[in-house]
Task: structure prediction
Amino acid sequence: MYVVYWLRDLVPQHREIVELTEALRFTEEMRKKQRDGEPIRFVSFVGENPNSVGNPGVDETGPDYNWKKRRI
Result:
């Protein structure tokens, strides 16, 4: 599952697309319209695996995990 996002006249819009090739084609189509002068900005797309078995991210770490944020 993919979603293409863009702004047209600063109004957020989106389109859900199932296939990656179609999402890439549509994204490029929107970017071409942008290059041709239409009031389209911030064209991007994201993907999500609908068959994922868990939530994204880390919910547990092992005893050897000791990451620390270091500031300079």
In short: The chain has one helix and three strands. The first helix runs from residue 20 to 35. The helical segments are 20-35. Residues 2-38 form one domain.
